[in-house]
Amino acid sequence: MASTWGKPVAQHAGMIGDFVGKHRFAKQLLAGTAISFGALMIAAPTNAFATERTTQSEIAQASAVFDFNIGAQSLNNALLDFAQQTGIQVFYDTAQVENLTSTAVTGRMQAATALEQLLDGSNVSYRFSNENSVTLAIINAADDTLVDPVLVEAQANNPGDPAATEGTNSLTTTVASVGSKGNETIRELPQSVSVVTAKRIEDQNFQYLDDAMRYTTGVQVLTNNNGRSSIYSRGYEIDNVQTNGVPAPYSSLDGTSPNLAMYDRIEVLRGPAGLYGGSGEPSATINLVRKQARDELSGSASVGYGSWNHYSGQGDVSVPLTEDGSVRARAILSADYRESFVDVVENNNELGYGTLDIDVNDDTFLSVGLSHEHKDMVPSNALPTFSDNTLLDVSTSTFVGAKWNTFDNTSDDVYLDLKHQFSSDTEGKISARYSVRNVNMKYAYTRSAAAADYTAQFYALDRHVDEDAFSTDAYLNHDFDMLGYTQTVTVGSDFRYSNQDLAYSNQLLGSYSIFNNDLPEPNNAITNSQTTESSQFGTYGKIKLQTFDDVTFSFGGRSSWYNSIVTNNLTGADTSNVTEDAVFVPFAGVVYDVTDDFSTYFSYTSIFEPQNTTTTVNGEQIEPRTGKQYEVGLKGEHFGGLMNTHLSLFQIEDQNRAAQDPSNTSFSIASGEIRTRGVEAEISGEIFENLQGFLSYTYLDSKDTDQSDSDSYSSYAPKHYVTSWADYSFDQGNLDGLSIGGGVTWSDHFSYNNGVKASSYTVVDGRIGYEINDNLALALNANNILDEKYYSRVATFRTFNFYGPSRSFFLNLTGKF
Fold first, then answer.
1. Helix (H, G, I), strand (E, B), or coil: what is residue 657?
2. Fewer beta carbons within 10 Å, N or C terminal of the chain?
3. 614 contact partners, CB below 8 Å, separation of at least 6
4. What average pLDDT does range 611-631 have in this prediction?
5. 3-state class of 163 per DSSP?
């Protein structure tokens, strides 16, 4: 019987998977090779294969241990899950296993042990030929011979990150580390998670974090200069941006939104995340996962040019430093220089990144990384409105500011990750990050509404920030047997410290036309100087309990100790000293596997946020804000994880918010509760062969529960927001190597605090790519193809009303080896 070989299914497939996915001849070649190998195996005595099963398994026992959660199901789906959860690429004859079932495999164990359990009771045998490959063969019960083997080949070129999306050529993945400690399948997390993969970053030419977040489910970006935009989710600004699970202070004003060249993927956990995040807004947690070194010599280089004198170049190389690749290094250099559709504005970025990865032994992995990023901009705070909040209808190229506007940011970071496997049941990890920021900005901006003759009051901001921060996290995951299932408990603690020196002044320049950028440059004398020293320590614990085959409960909690002191450097007095001791934050969730493809979930999450600068008329510090969320959802994992779906409904209750005391306007009172309700839906991955897509919908509604007016409170976010992207790759005939992609983003009308209002808009983007050969590719991206004129952000009548970018193009040439 002729074999029908499946395509690569693991989300972590390596270069072979990329090649196979694009070239039918390669599929046939691999299939023929595997069949020939199977014929040799058939010629060998069957008992020899069985005997080798034990001895060759010893090879796999020296390989990494994985977290498995594979339910009893069809063997076809189980093999796909096995591939997903181990980073192993699978090619197999689906017809030969479609009527077979597997046993459940859960817990932490070697790949060989999991495979043994997975195949228990079936007529499938396996043989490890080396550390990176295993051959499965079906035993014919009639004559005890082997038929149509299945080739399973492990990806070994990125051992430091088995969940890496780089090289998978996929718009989706089934695992994430945000919202848990260690990689966990997204279906197991009772919260909303989205992952922007390496393919999406490359295909849509995302160069900064705020670029990618514009096209992410449940996220809104408040436009500013690239690298300085504010990022919101579920009505609140995101203030928790991590790298490999460890945070550093994040400020859109100070331009700490990073260049993406050094990251493999972006994980977004929406809603309050106090269990592992401590204090913060009830918005979302963004986790940027560093690119790790490969264990083989490989690399890439790219150059690009686009609209508005946009030049870009990037180099990336991985080098094994030992023969077996157990010590390896990777270096990335990126440079991006661009002007803007707005006159005068410039945005230049330079990044250097290096990582040294060491497999200390079979159980221990160490990674040390360094990064240096420099931003040099000519910024603009954009347009005011007229006094009645009417938006200006002027050219999108209108620059509001001065020719001497300047912004400079230097960020240096050191990263440490140490993972150790204590036993097959217990793993631990210690991560640390040290960050240094230096920011200097001086620019003119409007601070009044525009008059009928387009004049406005201009001010000059002169701001200087020096900041250093240290964060660390340590945890243990332990598996144990109870109630007939493998259960998991996580315990850990984290600590973060930051010290920020801030000096600034705001000086009135006078009234000028907004079209005049020849403004007098003041010699600002610093009028405000302060030092903020803050620290937070927390301990956390979580237990995952499986009580039935299809039901898993999660319970957790965290205690946090927080302190922040603000000192006026001009007087030496402490203007704020806030301490919060043993603040407890609970967590609970449940996941129910309805079918092989779908799971439902419910969760309760919470967070707290100290209000450092708000006091009552009696001089008392207002208690921290608290955010709690109730969420229910449905998650789907289809075709072995090639496509994923997600639908969620949530309600956030933000309580004890500080607001101006109407009787004593210099002081604050607790304002009650803001209730936010929303719906989020997402589809991502392979729709059918060669066509991949992403589609998301977000609905958001916020209300002040103390007010009878349903429109009493308005966040920046539109009520309805849709974004999409699709890419089709041709793999035969004259069009072989060609890919065509495109997407549509639609936003409902939106406003800022029911004041300035922006109309709805639709933006269409596109891409054409061509693989010249196996090592060279050319791509042309077109953004806002229809040249829609729209406001992408509105704020007050004074400033921060931004047009969205007009039509642009970017051509990029990439070479890989």
1. coil
2. N
3. 621, 622, 658, 668
4. 80
5. coil
Instruction: Decide if 355 contacts 321 (C-beta within 8 A).
Output: no
Q: Are 250 and 283 in contact (CB under 8 A)?
A: no
DSSP helix/strand/coil, 733: helix
Give the model's pLDDT for residue 17: 38
Query: Do 270 and 233 form a contact (C-beta atoms < 8 A)?
Result: yes
Q: For residues 743, 749, 755 and 756, what is the CA-based torsion angle, rounded to 10 degrees?
A: 50
Helix axes 24-43, 15-22, angle to 10 degrees: 110
When pLDDT is cut at 50, 70 and 90, the band that residue 19 belongs to is very low
Provide the sign of the torsion angle of the four alpha carbons 619, 620, 621, 627, taken in this order: negative
Q: Which residue from 424, 11, 414 is spatially nearest to 197, judged by alpha carbons?
A: 11
Using N-to-C axis directions, what is the helix angle for 111-118 and 75-86, rounded to 10°?
Answer: 170
Q: Give the span between the Cα atoms of 626 and 285, in whole angstroms.
A: 16
DSSP assignment of 479-522, as one string? EEEETTEEEEEEEEEEEEEEEEEEEEEEEEEEEEETT---PPPP
Q: Do 500 and 519 contact (CB within 8 A), yes or no? A: no
With a CB cutoff of 8 Å and minimum separation 6, the contacts of 251 are none
Mean pLDDT confidence for 513-530: 92
What is the average per-residue pLDDT within 372-377? 98
CA atoms 803, 804, 807, 809: torsion sign: positive
CA distances from 708 to 234, 685, 700, 704 (A): 22, 43, 19, 8
Residue 226 has pLDDT above 50, yes or no: yes
Joined together, the tokens standing for residue 48 give 């020899």
Distance from C-alpha of 203 to C-alpha of 765, rounded to nearest angstrom: 11
DSSP symbol at 259: B
Q: E-strand spans in 64-120?
A: 65-70, 88-91, 105-110
As a whole number, mean pLDDT of residues 305-315 equals 97
> How far is Cα 641 from Cα 127, in angstroms, rounded to an integer?
25
Give dist(CA 517, CA 9) in Å, integer. 56
Rounded mean pLDDT of the chain? 85
Which comes out higher in pLDDT, residue 303 or 79?
303
Residues 6+ apart with CB under 8 A from 263: 201, 288, 289, 290, 291
The answer to whether 797 touches 449, Cβ cutoff 8 Å, is yes
Tokens of 65: 């241990």
Separation CA 261–CA 302 (nearest Å)? 11
b (16+ CB within 10 A) / e for 660-678: ebeeeeebbbbbeebbbbb
Q: Closest Cα to residue 232, out of 600, 700, 650? A: 700
Measuring CA to CA, how many Å separate 95 from each of 6, 17, 92, 640? 10, 21, 9, 15
Average pLDDT, stretch 691-712? 84
Q: What confidence tier does 127 reach under pLDDT thresholds 50, 70, 90?
A: low
Residue 316: Cβ-neighbour burial (10 angstroms; 0-12, 13-18, 19+): buried
Closest CA to 435 of 513, 497, 522, 363: 497
0.70 exceeded by the pTM?
yes
Kindly tell me if the per-residue pLDDT of 275 is higher than 50.
Answer: yes
pLDDT in tens, 40-66: 333 333 333 333 333 333 333 324 467
pLDDT of residue 393: 97
Q: What value does the CA radius of gyration of the chain take, rounded to a whole number of Å?
A: 28
Kind of pairing between the strands at 240-243 and 284-290: parallel
Cα four-point dihedral sign 18, 21, 25, 26:
positive
Tell me the per-residue pLDDT of 769-815, one tens digit each, with 9 for 90 and over: 999 999 999 999 999 999 999 999 999 999 999 999 999 999 999 99
Residue 389 CA to residue 411 CA, distance in Å, equals 37
Place of tokens 């080739």: 151
From the list 189, 316, 317, 210, the residue with the least C-alpha distance to 255 is 210
